[in-house]
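Example record for the data management plan.
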Amino acid sequence: MSPEGRTAGADRPLALVTGASAGLGLEMARVLAQRGWDLVVTARSPAPLDALAEELDETCGAWVFVSARDLSHPDGPDRLIADVEATGRVVQGLVNNAGFGQLGPYPDLDPDTERRMLRVNVDAVVRLTRAFLPGMLERGRGWILNVGSTASFVPGPRMATYYATKAFVLSYSEALHEELRASGVGVTCLLPGPTPTGFQERAGVVAHRRARPDRERVRAVARAGVDGALAGRRRVVVGWRDRLSALLPRALPRDWVTTVVRRHQEGRMGGGESA
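Corresponding structural encoding:
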């Protein structure tokens, strides 16, 4: 529902941000509000979204519509789309950020969690793009920012399905970017490496140095993603480590890269999931 007492700004564009309760989604919502955007924010839990809406109203004067929806539910994307349509506003920016992973030997992983991962990481991205892209094309302006990963470039033993979903996000984004090149609508893929957003712990990654909280890293990646989307860039990779992670898999033998990834993941195993 819309936060009580707020009215939509007549002259501010509207962006939809999924997975906005924490991590990159939260920071990208803040960046957009600071740059004059109104927002629809969504995640499973309403409490952090309500807190974000209050914050952005007070600090940026942004109108923020809260839609607490579970995109892993088969009807989740449709319910979110209906919520957005009920505002009477048009979406000019879409951030497909929501996603989660599951770490462990593939035969031991929960198949229901895998199905939910596919719905969030792949199906919701396609359905939300399908819902809001036609309006952007009709108006001749707009942008879509899909959050992939440096995992998009390699196979991921011990996180096979998660890595495959991120490979899909990159391929899908780049294909649409090329198709829409002359349309006035941009599609950008943000490709962060390990970013301490809480994802690692909830995915079952054993605590390690790079998983420690680092809000500045998260903010930097969020700012770069928004900048890239507003500029219509094809890809956004932040920092030399992530650029190296994106480049090396294309220069080295794929069998060797896959083995290295497997060994790396086995050192991180702890079981569980991230949402």
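Summary line stored alongside the record: Strands lie at 14-18, 38-43, 64-68, 93-96, 142-147, 185-190, 235-236.
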